Amino acid sequence: MDERSHYRICPLCEACCGLELRTRGSQIVGIRGAEFDVFSRGYVCPKGAALKDVHEDPDRLRTPLIRRDGRFVEASWDEAFAEIQRRLLPIQQAQGRDAVAVSVGNPSAHKYGLLLYFGRLAKALGTKNVFSASTLDQMPKQLSSGLMFGHWLSIPVPDLARCQHLLVIGANPAASNGSLWTVPDFRGKAKAMRARGGRLVVIDPRRTETAAMADRHHAIHPGSDALLLAAMTQTLFDEGLVRLGRLTDHVNGVDAVRDAVAPFTPERVAARCGIAAADIRTLACELAAAERGCVYGRLGTCGQRFGSVASWLVDVLNALTGHLDEPGGAMWPLSAAFAHNTQGKPGVGRGVAVGRHASRVSGAPEVFGELPITLLAEEIETPGPGQVRALFTIASNPVLSAPGGPRLARALEALDLMVSVDIYLNETTRHADVILPGRSPLEDSHYDVAFPQLSDRNHARYSAPVFEPAPSHLPEWQVLLKLAAIAQGLGAGADPVALDDEAVAEQVRKLAGPHADAVLKALGARKGPERLLDLALRSGPYGDRFGMKPDGLNLAKVQAAPGGIDLGELQPRVPEVLRTESGKIELAPPLLLADLAQAMALIDEPAPALVVIGRRDVRSNNSWMHNLPTLAKGPQRCTAIVHPRDAARAGVQDGQRVRLVNEHAALTVPVTVSDEVMPGVVSLPHGWGHDQPGAQLRVAAERPGVNLNALLDDRLRDPLSGNAVLSGVAVRLQAVAGG
Ligand SMILES: Nc1nc2c(c(=O)[nH]1)N[C@H]1C(S)=C(S)[C@@H](COP(=O)(O)OP(=O)(O)OC[C@H]3O[C@@H](n4cnc5c(=O)[nH]c(N)nc54)[C@H](O)[C@@H]3O)O[C@H]1N2
Ligand SMILES: Nc1nc2c(c(=O)[nH]1)N[C@H]1C(S)=C(S)[C@@H](COP(=O)(O)OP(=O)(O)OC[C@H]3O[C@@H](n4cnc5c(=O)[nH]c(N)nc54)[C@H](O)[C@@H]3O)O[C@H]1N2
Ligand code: SF4
Ligand SMILES: [Mo]
User: Most exposed: 26, 495, 579, 603, by fewest CB within 10 Å?
Assistant: First the structure.
């Protein structure tokens, strides 16, 4: 049989590398980085090759499952939708719309069918109980960006190609391959920066893979980043280093920031951060002195009590040192499709609002239409009007990925209905009544909706399906539309394609007014996400405007370009990128100023003797890639790393099994003793704990690991963004007899 070559954007992490797959018939015979990809230029990590395992995994679901008498049985799609309709409508009717919750997880960001259609399901459900992985991840950054720049996704990213000084705080892109920053081959690019005389500085409780390649590493006590960043900001004012440059006329609130950070002197915060005052000053001064440079913060700065404040201060520092919106600094990509900061009137907007509603039990404010995912369990458990009685999970595994997962698992069992759109029968979906399988990513076309808004270079890339799906296997966008139709009372028999035609026609009428018919005609016979993509590309900033700009982009052109279309290096975008009411950068949003004042109390809070932090490994990804043989082989990855001092105190030795204990759980894991973590910190990866009865993950179950989130506290969160605290939670280390 002939060998064929296919181009496919890797859906496994935010680097979005272009892959070249070679196939023979239905076999994948090779996967490598696509040298001709205009964006990733051949880069690939060990996970890329595991796409073959995803596609071929015998545990990956291909048929809907219905749980009957405690056992899952295969069902047809029609039976599955009928079952959902039969059970959902009485719940909605008797208990109201909020009785049905929905949770959407990380892989939905990597499948445009899910990302572009999830909103339709949420809207049809009409529930305020919308949860997602965002409140385990980036909601603090979305909130601070929304308040400062006017849209939740207007997140500036380092322009590494021209940067000479990169300060990385609470991120490990050498292992994670970047996040809220699509930067394939971070390692190669960071090395190139150092080779041209640039400097990499890392602030992290652990000497990570990124720290190991840096010029300097400072260990920081978990959870104290807001203090460090406030003290750096204070230093800029104190030493007269503030330089707004080109942004001077585009910034509000500089004086308010100066007043707010005044009490946070380096001397005041040094002990709590574990970083000497002189070092804090140096961090601020060298950032200010760098001709081109920036601060980049990620998960480590978000998963803490003051996550929103820390996320905000990262961009305050960039703005005050003249590095925001400047080449080599923190810049906004100009995405070819779907970016809100390219739509509507340039330079001004409505800003963002929070707290339009609140969670029923704890009263936590809504942010970006969502409630904190750590509150899902109490919403199910607590009786009263609006109690959650049904749940849809869409590519979401909160039993492993959210603090308090074991409590949530018990709550899920008590639901009247749970429906999962997922590819595995796993720790979360085993509680479902109906599981609707997603297709293999290789059976769908793809375009990244979110990541070009965060990419270190502008580009437009599309990948076609590699394999034909089974004829009966609905694409996920149609699954979501079917569920939406059921929720709206249109019935399980509704035709998702016809519903989509209607919705697109309405969208086009709004967008194009009198030209709507011509636009619809131009979109031709395309359906589903491809049609939305063509519409977005053509009406986007590089678009052909449906023929008005014949040289512009459309989907046909992107499809015809092997490896995508390069749209050039990042360009300054202020003021055009802004969507705040004032049309300015809001450097001092009142919500953040008020919370910064609260952070003072952190300084004198007694710090626990030992706290746990997370860890990412390049051969793993969140909770669902442990069933892939290519990634599962090799050394055990779910291990605790402790500092020699803490190991000696607990009387444990390298390689032994130890217990990590607190009020929430007791976990037994192998320990590595190493000074790569600072004293008082133990590092354990998340996403493990594949020993739950009823899951069908045969490879993962061989070495299940333990669930870090069982140790974390679902009551701890950043009250502004609702993001869970993932770091700095107290644990004790104990030797295990015979361990
Ligand atoms: N303690 C701690 N907890 C953390 C983190 C941490 O650092 N520390 N990190 C957090 C972060 S950043 C994130 S993003 C979350 C992620 O948490 P989740 O959003 O739960 O994501 P995953 O763990 O990747 O699980 C994804 C689910 O999607 C399913 N899936 C995979 N591919 C597909 C597909 O193509 N279609 C469908 N329909 N389903 C699919 C998988 O089977 C799995 O059930 O975890 C968070 N949890
Ligand atoms: N290989 C691999 N790649 C991934 C993933 C994966 O699971 N595996 N997950 C993907 C996802 S969903 C995401 S969101 C990204 C995350 O991307 P990153 O944020 O780059 O990934 P992490 O490794 O979680 O980095 C967080 C760092 O913060 C440190 N840290 C912990 N607590 C603190 C603190 O209080 N302060 C500071 N300053 N640092 C702290 C940790 O030691 C860690 O090094 O990675 C993505 N890429
Ligand atoms: S870094 Fe690895 S997992 Fe991430 S997109 Fe590239 S090949 Fe895929
Ligand atoms: Mo994430």
Answer: 26
pLDDT (tens digit, 9 = 90+) per residue, 692-728?
A: 999 999 999 999 999 999 999 999 999 999 999 999 9
Tokens encoding 399: 């039993």
What's the residue count for the chain? Answer: 739
CA of 726, nearest ligand number:
1
688 pLDDT above the threshold of 80 = yes
Distance of CA 576 to the CA centre of its chain: 26
User: pLDDT, tens digit, for every residue of 122-177?
Assistant: 999 999 999 999 999 999 999 999 999 999 999 999 999 999 999 999 999 999 99
Give the pLDDT confidence of 554-567 residue by residue, as tens digits: 999 999 998 999 99
pLDDT tens for 256-277 read 999 999 999 999 999 999 999 9
CB-ligand 2 contact for 388 (6 Å cutoff) = no
CA of 47 to the centre of ligand 3 (A): 6
What pLDDT, on the 0 to 100 scale, is given for residue 312?
Answer: 99
Phi, psi of 319 (to 5 degrees): -70, -45
Question: What is the reported pLDDT for 606?
Answer: 85
Give the CATH number, domain containing residue 719: 2.40.40.20
Q: What percent of the chain has pLDDT over 90?
A: 99
Task: Round to whole Å and give the CA distance between 687 and 707.
Answer: 6
Structure letter (DSSP) for residue 182: B
Instruction: Determine which residue's CA is closest to atom 35 belonging to ligand 2.
Output: 222
- pLDDT at 398 (0 to 100): 98
DSSP symbols for 61-112: --S-EEEETTEEEE--HHHHHHHHHHHHHHHHHHH-GGGEEEEE-GGGGG-H
Is 295 inside any structural domain? yes
What are the CA-CA distances from residue 489 to residues 9, 59, 126, 507, 511 (Å)?
Answer: 37, 34, 12, 22, 28
Mean pLDDT (the chain, rounded)? 97
* Consecutive H or E run containing 141: helix 139-149
Span from the CA of 110 to the centroid of ligand 3 (angstroms) = 12
- Can you tell me which residue has the tokens 């809207």? 123
Residue 385 confidence (pLDDT)? 95
The pTM of this model reads 0.98
In sign, the C-alpha dihedral spanning 517, 523, 528, 533 is negative
Please identify, by atom number, the ligand 3 atom nearest to the C-alpha of residue 16.
5
Determine the residue of 155, 179, 725 to mutate for testing ligand 2's pocket, defined as the one with the most ligand atoms within 8 A of the Cβ atom: 179
Residue 739 has pLDDT above 80, yes or no: no
Judge whether 383 lies within some domain: yes
pLDDT at 737 exceeding the cut of 90:
no
Per-position b or e across 433-454, b if 16+ CB within 10 A of its CB: bbbbbbbbbbbbbbbbbbbbbb
Cβ(687) to ligand 1 under 6 A? yes
- What is the distance in A from the centroid of ligand 2 to the CA of 299? 5
User: Does 111 sit in the ligand 1 pocket, CB within 6 Å?
Assistant: yes
Q: What is the count of structural domains for the chain?
A: 3
* C-alpha to C-alpha distance for 199 and 183, rounded to whole angstroms: 18
137 CA → ligand 4 middle, Å: 5
Inside any domain, residue 78: no
Helices and strands, counts by H and E, the chain: 26, 31
Residue 388 CA, ligand 1 centroid: distance in Å: 22
**471-482 mean pLDDT:** 97
Q: What range does the domain containing 700 cover? A: 608-735
Domain C-terminal end among 385, 411, 440: 440
CA of 185 relative to ligand 3 center, distance in Å: 9
Q: Based on the fold, state whether residues 361 and 247 are members of the same structural domain.
A: no
- Nearest-angstrom CA–CA distance, 247 and 585: 9
Ligand at minimal distance from the CA of 724 is 1
675 to 206, 678, 679: CA distances (angstroms) = 9, 6, 8
Q: Which ligand gives the minimal distance to the CA of 623?
A: 1
Q: Which ligand is nearest to the CA of 178?
A: 2
Which CATH number does the domain housing residue 296 bear? Answer: 3.40.228.10
Residue nearest to atom 34 of ligand 2 (CA): 222
* 686 has pLDDT over 80: yes
